[in-house]
């Protein structure tokens, strides 16, 4: 390897193993941004999150992790510190992939097989996308076969009116079913994403009280 090529690869390694800090002026890189074997444990979650943010939101987390693994496994590294970091990162990625799959299995164990409507709502409230391109793979993850049907459900419930508006025609039974549906996905969501669905449930409850009580 020539000097210029060696320098270029060393710079690529240096740029890869960095995190950034969000400031009012944008992303900040400083001495604390540089990953080392000593600060890996402290910064690995931030590094993982920022790496995943580089991938299309239409990808599921499992798909993002697998794409990242495909990109970095077998990559040639010069510096020993970065060889160690790469090994740790690959191990961390595989653990996250297994955890993602286990979480899905646990959800299904606790709640039974999720309906397509529940899956669509989980993705809507989580800010994730279901498209015609990824619909089949997401449906398959949850034990369904029709990505197109899942995409249609996601499109429907991406509209706030279809989540928190009165069903048409509005009957006590239909309104209660809608409340029960939204309540059924709250525990399937990360804590940070639960507030919006709870707020929308309350809107429906307010409608219920105004219409039928």
What does this structure look like?
The chain has 213 residues and is an all-alpha fold. Helix content is 65%, strand content 3%. The chain has 10 helices and 2 strands; from the N terminus they run H-E-E-H-H-H-H-H-H-H-H-H. The chain has helices spanning 3-16, 40-52, 61-72, 80-111, 116-126, 135-141, 147-157, 160-164, 172-186, 194-212; strands at residues 21-23, 26-28. The chain has a two-stranded antiparallel ribbon. A hairpin with a 2-residue loop joins strand 1 and strand 2 (26-28). It is elongated, with a radius of gyration of 22 Å. The model has no long low-confidence stretch (mean pLDDT 84).
Write the layout of secondary structure elements.
Elements: H1 3-16, E1 21-23, E2 26-28, H2 40-52, H3 61-72, H4 80-111, H5 116-126, H6 135-141, H7 147-157, H8 160-164, H9 172-186, H10 194-212
Antiparallel strand pairs: 1-2
Helix and strand content put the structural class at: mainly alpha
**Largest beta-sheet details:** 2 strands, antiparallel
Following the backbone from N to C, one meets helices and strands in this order, namely HEEHHHHHHHHH
Put simply, the count of helices is: 10
Short description:
By secondary structure, this protein is mostly helical.
């Amino acid at each position: 390897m020539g000097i210029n090529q060696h320098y270029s690869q060393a710079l690529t390694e240096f740029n890869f193993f960095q995190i950034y800090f969000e400031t009012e002026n944008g992303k900040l890189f400083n001495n604390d941004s540089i990953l080392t074997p000593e600060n890996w444990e402290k910064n690995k979650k931030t590094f993982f999150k920022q790496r995943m943010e580089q991938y299309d939101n239409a990808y599921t987390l499992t798909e993002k992790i697998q794409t990242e693994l495909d990109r970095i496994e077998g990559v040639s590294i010069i510096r020993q510190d970065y060889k160690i970091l790469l090994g740790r990162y690959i191990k961390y990625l595989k653990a996250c992939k297994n955890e993602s799959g286990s979480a899905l299995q646990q959800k299904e164990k606790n709640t039974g097989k999720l309906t397509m409507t529940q899956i669509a709502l989980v993705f809507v409230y989580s800010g994730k996308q279901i498209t015609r391109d990824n619909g089949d793979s997401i449906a398959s993850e949850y034990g369904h076969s029709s990505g197109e049907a899942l995409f249609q459900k996601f499109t429907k419930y991406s509209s706030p009116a279809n989540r928190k508006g009165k069903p048409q025609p509005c009957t006590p039974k239909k309104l209660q079913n809608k409340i029960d549906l939204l309540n059924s996905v709250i525990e399937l969501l990360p804590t940070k994403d639960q507030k919006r669905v709870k707020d929308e449930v309350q809107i429906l409850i307010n409608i219920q009280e105004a219409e039928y009580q």
